[in-house]
Amino acid sequence: MSEPGRRRGRPPRLLSGDTAARILDTARTLFAEHGFTVTTNRMVADAAGVTPTALYHYHASKLDLYAAVHDECRDRLARRMAAAVTQADTFVDRLIAVLDTTQQLANEDPSLARFLASAHVDMARQADVQAAVHGGSMWLSELVAGVVEAGVATGELGAAERAGANALLVALLMGLTDAASIDPDLHNRAITASRNALRGWVLARQLAGG
Question: Mean pLDDT for each 10-residue chunk of the chain (210 residues)?
Fold first, then answer.
């Protein structure tokens, strides 16, 4: 039986999982606040309550840690947005569901939006960061493309509008991510304005008979 308060040589599996999650959460907050260049592994280790050696047990380098944080954020967004899309039938309703999801996520975890906004800057400035991030923003383009194709299939979008709608929606969603990182009130107002604009667009098409 181990003595109370005595440190074990290797943490149990559950603790390891908790530690891994805490490292990612801490790194996300620090990368979002300071950027890739300024943030150090020691800063992350100290804030997460682990030793630098323990941090290297989970991530071999700062670049590896950054990529893991980005992948976790991307996967969380992708899962939530994909689930939201399946709950709606029309192009506009699917897009509004995606907009609402960005609002929910920003409210649940502000560091998520701040990290993704800072990641745009980090990837633009450093080629190694861009190369390390698996897929970049490809998941967002793929999600938007699926929503647009659904709109073409239902007749809400014309085939000739496909490319323009794709570009507009990717820009809109990336912009909303940046807005959420700057000011939650600005983000909420932008969501409301986008939702109203979409509904107005649908009404205009209906009145025009197209």
Answer: 38 59 96 95 96 94 96 88 87 86 85 87 90 76 88 87 89 76 76 82 66
Q: CA–CA separation, 50 vs 7, rounded Å?
A: 13
pTM of the model: 0.77
Q: How many Å apart are CA 122 and CA 34, to the nearest integer? A: 10
**Could you tell me if 187 and 117 are in contact, meaning their C-beta atoms sit under 8 angstroms apart?**
no
DSSP string, 103-142: HHHHHH-HHHHHHHHHHHHHHHH-HHHHHHSSSTTHHHHH
Share of the chain residues as helix, strand and coil, in percent rounded to the nearest 5: 80, 0, 20
C-alpha span between 110 and 104 (Å, rounded): 10
The pLDDT of residue 202: 67
| Rounded distance between C-alpha atoms, residue 88 and residue 66, angstroms | 34
What pLDDT score does 179 carry? 67
pLDDT value at residue 135: 66
Task: Fill in the amino acid letter for 119.
Answer: A
* Distance from C-alpha of 126 to C-alpha of 197, rounded to nearest angstrom: 36
> Which tokens in the block code for residue 145?
């493309």
Cβ contact 179:104 at 8 Å: no
User: What is the chain's Cα-based Rg?
Assistant: 21
